[in-house]
Design a protein that fits this description.
By secondary structure, this protein is an alpha/beta fold. Helix content is 28%, strand content 24%. Bound molecules: S-adenosylmethionine (SAM). S-adenosylmethionine (SAM) binds next to α1 and β8.
Length: 220
């Protein structure tokens, strides 16, 4: 059986309480620093999403992720394309190995170009084992049709992320859990997971989602 743990609170405080070298992977989707506005009142603004706030936040949590990861492990950090400071900051701690593109099935709005993708920075701490087969760096996944969160990621996308960076039975950390897409994906893929989320209402949604998650069947 895989286990999940949810901490309701500020990830900087929670992470500081966790021991060095204790997780097998980080998969996280932090505030991008783009001041995302909610869509027609259906979802609300993201805590920490102003550019100045996000830069302070990333500068504080990235070293904590590095400290918590075991040696020779990998991390995936979601970010927007326009935050050029993100890979620079990650490179102060990690070896930035690739920029994976999440290609969506729908286009956003724009006068000259219409956004259809987001970035996922793939980073190493040390040298993780080489997989049997290398992955494409373009991952297709349809957007969540009726999201409960302005940045909710599809579980299919997060399952691919989880499989890519962690061994079965390993422990994944997501310090910006939102409504828990990484947690659901991790349990469905047979991993343990630690999520942290500052907004109580999203934590409640996570608890409800986790109550319905199916563990994979044990091998006969
Ligand atoms: C981009 S969203 C993550 C969405 C998530 N991937 C999902 O699919 O639901 C970032 C989340 O980080 C949370 N957050 C912002 N600052 C935080 C902090 N200091 N500690 C913990 N969570 C925080 C926000 O409330 C928001 O839900």
């Amino acid at each position: 059986m895989s286990n999940w743990t949810l901490y309701e609170g500020d990830c900087l405080k929670v992470m500081r309480e966790l021991p060095d070298n204790s997780v097998d992977a980080v998969v996280t989707d932090p505030p991008y620093g783009i001041d995302l506005q909610p869509q027609r009142g259906r979802t609300k603004p993201i805590v920490g999403d102003r550019k100045d706030e996000a830069q302070v936040l990333w500068r504080a949590f990235v070293p904590e992720c590095y400290r918590l990861l075991k040696p020779n492990t990998a991390a995936l950090f979601f970010a927007g394309w326009s935050e050029a400071w993100v890979p620079q900051l990650l490179a102060e701690w990690f070896t930035v190995k690739a920029c994976i593109v999440w290609r969506k099935n729908v286009w956003g709005i724009g006068y000259y170009t219409r956004p259809q993708h987001e970035f996922i920075w793939y980073c190493h701490k040390g040298k993780p084992p080489v997989p049997d087969r290398a992955e494409s760096d373009v991952w297709d996944a349809p957007r969540v049709p009726h999201p409960k969160h302005a940045c909710e990621k599809p579980v299919a996308l997060m399952r691919r992320a989880v499989r890519f960076v962690s061994p079965v039975g390993g422990t994944i950390l997501d310090p910006f859990a939102g409504v828990g897409s990484t947690l659901v994906a991790a349990i469905e893929e047979g991993r343990n997971v630690i999520g942290i989320e500052i907004e109580p209402e999203y934590c409640e949604i996570i608890r409800q989602r986790m109550a319905a998650v199916q563990q994979p069947l044990p091998l006969a």
